[in-house]
Here is the input.
Amino acid sequence: MSENQANGTGAEETGGVPGRAAPEVKAVPDTVSAAFEDFMQAFEAFKEANDERLSEVERKLAADTVTRDKVERINRAMDEQGRLLDQLTIKKLRPPLERAGGSTAGGMGGAEAAELKAAFESYIRRGDETGLRELEAKALSAGVPGDGGYLVPPETDSEIGRRLASVSPIRALATVRQVSGAVLKKPFAPAGMASGWVAETAARPQTATPELAELTFPTMELYAMPAATQALLDDAAVDIEAWISGEVDIAFAEQEGAAFVSGDGVNRPKGFLSYPTVADANWAWGSLGHVGTGVAGGFAASGASDVLITAIYALKAGHRQNAHFVMNRRTQGEIRKFKDADGNYLWQPPAAAGQAAALMGFPVTEAEDMPDIAADALSIAFGDFRAGYLVVDRTGVRILRDPYSAKPYVLFYTTKRVGGGVQNFEAIKLVKFG
Here is the structure.
């Protein structure tokens, strides 16, 4: 908590609780533990504001607009803190861009680094290129500053930034199989073995033979072919070749993640939301069962969380043991407001950094490819994805470095073959907002 927060400076007064301000997205904390502490503080503020909103609803049958806005603002702040926590956790796993001998990624000593930094600042502040011309670091096209300009000195930042990527976590939840061919065929017995009771000396007639269904999972091809000049690869202060490889790998992860959720199966994996769905009471093999909220595009006004309980117990006990809720952050933001009859919040924050939040005791996985709440949208999935969904990998990511076909550019022809689909239709249930 900052000094201003501790003293109540700049805080809003809501609901008779002076000195409590809606949390803001703070500067990037230095450690994962600091980010986790900020996240927990935001959750406590959210509970306080939402309790006030519910109290107003009970007293006046409607919440004050200011209170509602405050709840939504805190909800968004929690999303930002959660994403920041995830980024810091992942960043800890990345090695620093450092070379042998203790030098920086640019391979320069202290005097050279100071000279480059001064020249770079002159260029940034005054447009003076004189110093940088003498210490030129080649860019995407060595002769065109607009195609990359002068690379930032490594002391400023040795890591190339990128936009925020929302990579679907379905691969982490599903079963993954490596194959040596183009297609994986999987036999499955939708019904178990037939059996029956008999007397000690009675005849034993042959029981019915179990029927098998064949599930087919073809692998589809993803490709990318970025290019870079040889001068860039030779002269850049960072390992551009490794950077391109990493960027392509992340781009592939984004593409396949979206396909695992909603892919149509044409030149891409088939997502679990693309299979036929029926009301769970009429469920049959080959489709996914869903339970409805009873309201188009929203939760029921009374007993809003009942549909979540129905979805949980629509799943067989054996699958419930390994089940996860899957939804996007906006849907999760709505569910954060739900409380049980004793006033306890159904959504609980992670117990420690790196762990998942929980909803009614089950882990919550945030997948941005899940649809938003809308009329007839299937915005929440609950199930044992390890049993229910199969990801098929033909190989890993393959990169062919081609310095000959498009001189002076070096091409990086990158391919990946992956497929996916539902392998057990009773292991996943959906919540339909209709």
Observations:
- Confidence is low (pLDDT under 50) at residues 1-20, 94-107, 137-159.
- The first helix runs from residue 3 to 7.
- The chain has three domains: 3-92, 100-147, 168-190+212-434.
